[in-house]
């Protein structure tokens, strides 16, 4: 199908720039500075995607005109995807536009790569949304008493704006739980922004969270909104919150208290409207006692604490998880949904799974990839550690984890990428554990 893009903006320089950027990526680019021409252009060119400015008149800067034309486009051509073009100050209006029917929004001044990717995604938005609905991770609560208690707590706190701290070992599904809380919240129609604080370089901490102005530092070639701004009207999820250096924690605390941020290279405060969810696998109370984490920040982020239990404490949930992962990867790799033998399932349930759900998922995925049979037996699963019932108290968690890492290193010949994948943890987490155990 011919790809036609309609750009409606009263800034002719913007029209020229976007047309030049997109003309090699789509079949036809139509530009228009007068939004009153939209009905005629829709009928004549039948564009699949419209890039629509939020403001057209110099004396009117509320974004209401953009929302009006968004409604008109969706009324006249419901199948047309609309991407909103907005200034940073109007992000909340853009979020409102997505509730009305916009597929996405772009903030000015724009980044070429981000703009082109967003517009190209909009051409396949129906297909993309269908794929997302069929393959996006699902929150499987299970039947264990531990997870049922978590579920009841989540159902109570999700509709509020209370700050939530999710704790638990690596691989227990803290990121998935954060998404579920967002889905059940009153902000579900807004964005959820996820920041892995363990992966953020310290020197880029402020730029990542608060954004920066053009020229604020060497590589700041354009204005950029930080995660606090792009999460406006939705949820900001800070994963691995315990990894924030102490001297930067005060900056985060100030932003949360004042509900304002200041971009790097500017002096202008910007209001923020976010619901904060944090997660950690570390003992923050112990870190507070040892002077590694601010007590006032700790109290600020954990209005409600939700602890996810490790997989070894809820073995009754494992069969349902295995079934879910088999179905997921059978679809991804176009394979029949194999049945797991009873002996294999018993063996899987008897494992300690130091990498928790993430490790279990990778193990099932590997079995589906390598096996061509319609049944999966013990031999199909990468189960190198001995059965270790949860009732066995003779071995500490630390020693189990150390042994699992040592075993994985031997199995994969020291290839740390494969070791991390085998254990269901990130490379950075693996390196941290290597230092911890002196390996």
Name some characteristics of this structure:
439 residues, alpha/beta, 5-stranded parallel beta sheet, 16 strands, globular
Question: How does this model look, in words?
Answer:
α14 (318-332) packs across α16 (356-370). This protein is globular. It is built from 19 helices and 16 strands. The strands form five sheets. A five-stranded parallel beta sheet has the order 2-1-3-4-5, with helices on both faces. A five-stranded parallel beta sheet has the order 7-10-13-6-14. Strands 8-9 form a two-stranded antiparallel sheet. The relative contact order is 0.08. β4 (81-87), α4 and β5 form a beta-alpha-beta unit. The protein is an alpha/beta fold and 439 residues long.
Number of helices: 19
Order of strands across the biggest sheet?
2-1-3-4-5
How far the N terminus sits from the C terminus, by CA atoms, comes to 56 Å
Helix fraction bin: 40-55%
Percent of sequence in beta strands: 5-15%
Average residue pLDDT: 85
Radius of gyration over C-alpha positions, nearest whole angstrom: 25 Å
Short description:
The chain is an alpha/beta fold and 439 residues long. The chain contains 19 helices and 16 strands.
Break the fold down into its secondary structure elements and pairings:
Blueprint: E1 4-8, H1 12-22, E2 28-32, H2 38-45, E3 49-53, H3 64-76, E4 81-87, H4 91-100, E5 104-108, H5 112-123, H6 125-135, H7 145-157, E6 164-167, H8 174-184, E7 192-196, H9 205-210, E8 211-212, E9 224-225, H10 227-230, E10 235-239, H11 246-258, E11 260-262, E12 269-271, E13 275-280, H12 284-289, H13 295-301, E14 304-307, H14 318-332, E15 339-340, H15 342-350, H16 356-370, E16 375-376, H17 397-411, H18 416-423, H19 427-437
Parallel strand pairs: 1-2, 1-3, 3-4, 4-5, 6-13, 6-14, 7-10, 10-13, 15-16
Antiparallel strand pairs: 8-9, 11-12
Helix pairs in contact: 3-4, 14-16, 17-18
């Amino acid at each position: 199908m011919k790809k036609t893009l309609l750009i409606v903006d009263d800034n002719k320089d913007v029209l020229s720039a976007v047309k030049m950027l997109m003309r090699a990526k789509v079949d036809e680019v139509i530009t228009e500075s007068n939004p009153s021409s939209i009905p005629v252009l829709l009928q004549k060119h039948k564009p699949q995607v419209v890039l629509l400015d939020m403001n057209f008149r110099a004396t009117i800067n509320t974004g209401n005109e953009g929302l009006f034309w968004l409604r008109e486009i969706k009324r006249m051509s419901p199948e047309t995807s609309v991407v909103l073009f907005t200034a940073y100050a109007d992000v909340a209006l853009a979020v409102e536009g997505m509730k009305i029917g916009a597929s996405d929004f772009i903030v000015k001044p724009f980044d070429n790569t981000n703009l082109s990717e967003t517009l190209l995604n909009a051409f396949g938005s129906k297909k993309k949304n269908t794929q997302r609905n069929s393959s996006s991770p699902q929150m499987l609560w299970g039947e264990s008493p531990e997870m049922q208690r978590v579920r009841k707590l989540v159902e109570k706190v999700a509709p509020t704006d209370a700050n939530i701290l999710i704790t638990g070992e690596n691989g227990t599904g803290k990121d998935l739980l954060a998404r579920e809380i967002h889905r059940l919240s009153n902000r579900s129609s807004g964005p959820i922004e996820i920041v892995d604080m363990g992966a953020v370089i310290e020197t880029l901490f402020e730029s990542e969270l608060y954004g920066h102005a053009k020229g604020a530092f060497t590589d700041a070639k354009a204005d950029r909104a930080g995660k606090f701004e792009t999460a406006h009207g939705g949820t900001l999820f800070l994963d691995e919150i315990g990894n924030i250096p102490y001297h930067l924690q005060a900056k985060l605390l100030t932003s949360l208290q004042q509900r304002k941020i200041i971009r790097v290279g500017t002096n202008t405060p910007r209001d923020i409207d976010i619901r904060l969810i944090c997660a950690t696998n570390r003992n923050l109370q112990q870190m507070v006692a040892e002077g590694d984490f601010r007590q006032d920040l700790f109290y600020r982020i954990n209005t409600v604490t939700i602890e996810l239990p490790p997989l070894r404490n809820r073995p009754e949930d494992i069969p349902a998880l295995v079934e879910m992962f088999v179905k997921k990867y059978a679809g991804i790799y176009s394979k029949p949904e194999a049945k797991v033998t009873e002996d294999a399932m018993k063996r899987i349930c008897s494992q300690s799974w130091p990498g928790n759900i993430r490790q279990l998922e990778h193990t099932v995925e590997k079995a589906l990839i390598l096996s061509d049979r319609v049944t999966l037996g013990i031999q199909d699963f990468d189960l190198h550690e001995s059965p270790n019932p949860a009732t066995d108290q003779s071995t500490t968690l630390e020693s189990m984890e150390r042994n699992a890492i040592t075993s994985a290193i031997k199995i994969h010949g020291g290839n740390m990428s494969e070791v991390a994948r085998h254990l269901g943890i990130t490379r950075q987490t693996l390196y941290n554990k290597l230092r911890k155990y002196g390996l």
